Every structure is written in C-alpha cells, then in structure tokens.
Amino acid sequence: MKITLLTVGKIKEKYFTGAIEEYTKRLSRYCKLEIIEVADEKTPDNASAAMEDIIRAKEAERLLKYIPEQAYVIALAIEGNMLDSVELSQRIEQLGVSGQSHIIFLIGGSLGLDKIVLARADYKLSFSKMTFPHQLMRVILLEQIYRAYRISHNEPYHK
Questions:
Q1: How far apart are CA 30 and CA 14, in angstroms?
Q2: 67, 149, 65: which is closest to 105 by C-alpha?
Q3: What's residue 157's pLDDT?
Q4: Are 9 and 37 spatial neighbours (Cβ–Cβ below 8 Å)?
Q5: CA distance 72 to 121
Q6: Is 63 helix (H, G, I), strand (E, B) or coil?
Q7: Tell me, what DSSP letter sits at residue 9?
Q8: Whether the Cβ atoms of residue 135 and residue 11 lie closer than 8 Å to each other
Q9: Which of 34, 71, 94, 146 could potentially form a cystine with 102 if both were Cys, beta carbons 3.0 to 4.6 Å apart?
Q10: What is the pLDDT of residues 86-116, one digit of tens each?
C-alpha cells in the first residue's frame, strides 16, 4: 500500500520534523510512505472572505496536481466523519483488501481546504471539532496511521 500525505505548507519546527522522521521510519515496514508539501499562500491580516477564497483556490490548484485519478483521497476536515483508531485501521485495511493501492491524506493550510478539493475527496475525516496547526496535524495523522497498522497486524501499541 502506498500512503501519501499531501499537505499545504512546510514544517518549520525541529521537534515536528523529528516526530515526522520517527513515524516515517516506523511506517516503512508497513507501507510506502510519501510526503508531498505544496507552498502555502500568505494570508494578510484581516483578509476578507473573498480573499480567503482566492487563497484556498490557489492552494487547491497546487494540491490537485498531485492527485492521480485512481487514488483514494481522504481529506482532513472539521466537518468530516470522526473515527476511533480501530475504525481508521479497519478503513485502511478494507481499502487494501478491496484493491485500493494508493491512499492520499490531504491536510490543508491555515484556512483549510478549498471546496473543489473537498469535492474530489472520497472520504472526509475529522480528528476533532477543534482546529489544529497543520504542522501538528501531520504528526497526529502519522501517529494514527502507524497505530492503525499496528492494530491491523495485531501488534501491541500504547493505549
């Protein structure tokens, strides 16, 4: 299985980079992991709703270039479905069993994902009704993917 994290923005803090490297290493025994970063747009202070729409649309253009037609796309979105770790594990496993060989997880920038990207998504996943910084969300997502593989392989992992 190939898993791609397609994200808006770069990781700036070393402590996030370290965590991402650790989970990337751990996941290497379960899947082929790829992380693709696209540039984020600067959002001016007090940006209007129209300006925010323009920014999301520019980021969406960049994201869509990296989404092959056959990939299964899971967009991280507050309005998405909330799953527990076992349910996420079952979802990833079921996708693999059904012949899906490439899952792309989308993480938007500070303004979230554009509606055109959300429309392309096969599934919308929410981790919480709270908003998280996209850098931290990348670490949380990688940890949950790693946990999902541990669960599906009946391997112990901290609860």
A1: 25
A2: 67
A3: 78
A4: yes
A5: 8
A6: helix
A7: S
A8: yes
A9: 71
A10: 999 999 999 999 999 999 999 999 999 999 9
Tokens of 11: 């990781």
The per-type count for the chain, helices as H runs and strands as E runs, is 5, 5
Whole-number Cα distances in Å, 89 to 18, 149, 156: 24, 6, 14
What amino acid occupies position 152?
Answer: S
Which residues, including other chains, have CB under 8 Å from residue 98's CB and lie 6 or more apart?
Answer: none
pTM for this prediction: 0.95
Which residues, listed in sequence order, are joined to residue 36 by a DSSP beta bridge? 6
How does pLDDT run along the chain (159 residues), one tens digit per residue? 999 999 999 999 999 999 999 999 999 999 999 999 999 999 989 999 999 999 999 999 999 999 999 999 999 999 999 999 999 999 999 999 999 999 999 999 999 999 999 999 999 999 999 988 889 999 999 999 999 999 999 998 765
Q: What own/partner pairs with CB < 8 Å and gap ≥ 24 does 88-95 have? A: 88/125, 88/144, 88/145, 88/147, 88/148, 89/147, 89/148, 89/149, 89/151, 89/152, 90/152, 91/123, 92/1, 92/145, 92/148, 92/149, 92/152, 93/148, 93/152, 95/1
Phi and psi torsions of 68, nearest 5°: -70, 150
